[in-house]
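ok trying this again, last paste got cut off
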Amino acid sequence: MNESFQESLDDSNKSKKHTKGSSTNQRRRKKTNSSEDATQEEEGVDFPLDVWFIISEYIRPEAVGKFAQICRSSYHVVTTGKFWFHLYKTYYRYVPGLPERLQPQCMVRLHGLRACVIRTLHYTYFSINKKDDDVSYLRQDQPHSLVKRQCCLMWHKEGKLRWYFYFKLKELPKANNKSKLRTKINGKKTDFLEMLEDVAVNSEEGCKILRVTCLKYSMLPPVIGLILQSVSMTLMPGFKDHRLQLGFGTSDVPNTLTNQVILNDVVSYQILDWWHPTYPHQDSITTIQLPESDSWDQSLL
């Protein structure tokens, strides 16, 4: 009786050991298989740089950002002058009013090439392929998006039955950008030849212009060097035109205003990015083109 019971215990222990051994082997196999799969996924396929240059010749202007985010090689291609020269030659079309700096005879140097090509595309490619609709003015950027920007320039112009007020607002550099700027100044990138070959340099980077159209002239205090803290748009007496109030201060902390700009009889406004054709660059003469109809006037009639 005892011998038979002991034999059964031995058999059960052997079977348990066998099952434990098989389970541990299965776990080890799974681990090795998963590690092999992970290494295969991490390795991937590294194509030669020439392949990425060939692929870049078929990239449309609106897909440049997505192409640059594929990998390091594709990003490197987008930072080269060869890529931007090819993009310019492919999509350049003659249009009236194109600044001389953006014409083929001037597009031969590397310094600031990226910004010039982008500006040219907004004169030619994007202006032709954009979809026009009646409510496009409703989707434009609001002046509130310019808060915490520093005013680096302001001026005004007189048009036909209109006054145009311009405020050039630049985005304040962050702490990380300041450290990068110091390394560029103190590092090897201060070499004059490297500066001349810098494709990505852009003096207007981070700048936007607020253009306000008014029926009458308004006397404004100087706000150059101050930071925009608040924006408010209200109706004037009679509920026909608007009043735009811009609060400026010495810091980006709200409720510490030092100067306030008040523009009366406002009929429209527009926020211009540096690549917009009507952005007043130094190499182009800005001509004021009145719209066919003011959207606010129509809505209030």
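PB: full thing came through this time. The CA atoms of residues 81 and 147 lie 35 Å apart.
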